[in-house]
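Title: Comparing notes on inverse folding

I've been comparing how different people in this forum approach sequence design from structure. To keep things fair, I'm posting one structure and asking everyone to reply with a full sequence. Here's the target:
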């Protein structure tokens, strides 16, 4: 009722801050009701430190975020604005209360939602006291409090002082942790209400005023605040993020161990310029390869079966390029990095076209099975290799010949083959350069499929020093130490 009265005929339709009696009503009534509700549920709340004023810190950052019970911070800090999903505003009763707090609404349907959310947080934080303080849980998801995951940058982009707030639940029995794997909302409420009391400690650390370096780089700002909070909590930090949680859920849905989805997404996405949707698609392919193995990892047998190639020295070397820690298996993180560093840079339109011309020995615009087999056999050094199954998979229209479009589509969907193609092309260039240096005509090998440009022997080993096409040495050199991420 108080929330309804405070927002009745609200000026600005929610786009202007509540002032005067409206704001005081929200702070007084909702804060008192929230405290009373937690007391009735048996919570014993212990508060340490001093709550910063609006002038001292426009933003509160609270962690670790592990439960919906963390909402007690709102009552302790004078009912600040929060960041909430836009759908929550339409929820009966709760939505009315939420609107009275004037939250920063996040819409999942809006592709610019993240940018708009950060812009709104910045606008309010720099309003010089017109808007109330903002409470943000920078982890962006609930965890089990065993560590602090990567902080999102939204609270740190405005370049204003923030006050870190710590949450502890020092109970023998944990009935509050609400994560993607565990008890439901209803179960946790019942379990908590069945306890005689539930201890909760809330500690307000000193305000963190950003340095000039932190103002210019919100990542540094966020990391230093996180480290300060981790030190006070005596817990480690990790580079995992909410996106890793989403990948873990997806891994579970694909019958993989949930930990298979842990890739330190933010870390590798920045280094390799990856998007979450692209990594999620790669998880589907990884699951298809690893489905027959135990532990959610790809062994050499599964790798060979997926590529429809026998286990050979060449395939073992390609496998080792993916297997960055040398444990004999490829986990999902190694698979993503391998595709990004080894395969995708080599899987360009130019490389695919060159490979197609290499296979198309009679230059008629199509590749027959014999032409295809000749190149694959030469590339792998296996003259008796049967490639009919692989050829049939590429031959989508079942005409017995491969068009350029069929070849290209398969190459784009299976970038793992790109390394084999480009390494083979590099071998041709290397041999041609050797013949030109000695001013010698290349002899015509019995099974050489290359038209007066290079020599390919039935048993010639592949060049091992390059995995990417010419002109991309930077990508190639980056893979020389496969344990260096």
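Reply #1:
Here's my take.
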């Amino acid at each position: 009722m108080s929330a309804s009265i405070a927002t009745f005929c609200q000026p600005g339709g929610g786009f202007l801050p509540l002032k005067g009696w409206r704001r005081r009503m929200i702070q007084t009534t909702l804060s008192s009701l929230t405290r009373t509700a937690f007391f009735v549920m048996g919570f014993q709340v212990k508060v340490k430190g001093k709550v910063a004023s609006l002038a001292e810190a426009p933003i509160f950052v609270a962690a670790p975020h592990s439960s919906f019970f963390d909402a007690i911070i709102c009552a302790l800090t004078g009912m600040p604005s929060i960041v909430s999903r836009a759908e929550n505003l339409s929820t009966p009763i709760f939505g009315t209360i939420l609107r009275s707090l004037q939250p920063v609404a996040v819409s999942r349907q809006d592709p610019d939602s993240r940018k708009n959310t950060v812009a709104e947080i910045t606008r309010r934080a720099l309003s010089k006291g017109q808007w109330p303080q903002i409470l943000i849980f920078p982890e962006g998801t609930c965890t089990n409090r065993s560590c602090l995951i990567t902080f999102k940058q939204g609270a740190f982009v405005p370049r204003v002082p923030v006050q870190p707030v710590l949450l502890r639940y020092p109970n023998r029995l944990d009935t509050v942790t609400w994560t993607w794997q565990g008890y439901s909302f209803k179960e946790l409420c019942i379990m908590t209400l069945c306890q005689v009391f539930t201890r909760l400690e809330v500690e307000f650390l000193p305000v963190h005023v950003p340095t000039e370096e932190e103002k210019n780089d919100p990542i540094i700002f966020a990391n230093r605040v996180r480290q300060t909070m981790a030190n006070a909590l005596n817990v480690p930090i990790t580079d995992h993020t909410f996106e890793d949680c989403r990948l873990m859920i997806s891994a579970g849905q694909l019958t993989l161990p949930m930990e298979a989805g842990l890739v330190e997404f933010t870390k590798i996405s920045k280094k390799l310029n990856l998007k979450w949707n692209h990594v999620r698609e790669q998880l589907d392919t990884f699951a298809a390869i690893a489905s027959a193995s135990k532990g959610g990892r790809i062994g050499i047998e599964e790798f060979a079966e997926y590529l429809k190639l026998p286990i050979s020295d060449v395939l073992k070397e390609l496998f080792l390029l993916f297997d960055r820690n040398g444990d004999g298996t490829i986990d999902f993180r190694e698979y993503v990095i391998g595709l990004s560093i080894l395969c995708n840079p080599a899987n360009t339109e130019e490389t695919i076209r060159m490979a197609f011309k290499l296979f198309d020995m009679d230059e008629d615009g199509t590749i027959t099975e014999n032409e295809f087999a000749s190149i694959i056999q030469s590339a792998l050094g296996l003259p008796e290799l049967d490639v009919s199954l692989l050829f049939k998979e590429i031959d989508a229209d079942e005409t017995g010949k491969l068009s350029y479009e069929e070849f290209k589509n398969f190459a784009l969907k299976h970038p793992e083959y790109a390394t084999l193609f480009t390494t083979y092309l590099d071998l041709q260039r290397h041999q041609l350069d050797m013949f030109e240096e000695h001013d010698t005509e290349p002899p015509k090998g019995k099974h050489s499929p290359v038209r007066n440009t290079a020599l390919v022997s039935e048993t010639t080993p592949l060049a091992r020093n390059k995995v990417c096409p010419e002109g991309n040495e930077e990508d190639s050199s980056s893979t020389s130490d496969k344990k260096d991420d």
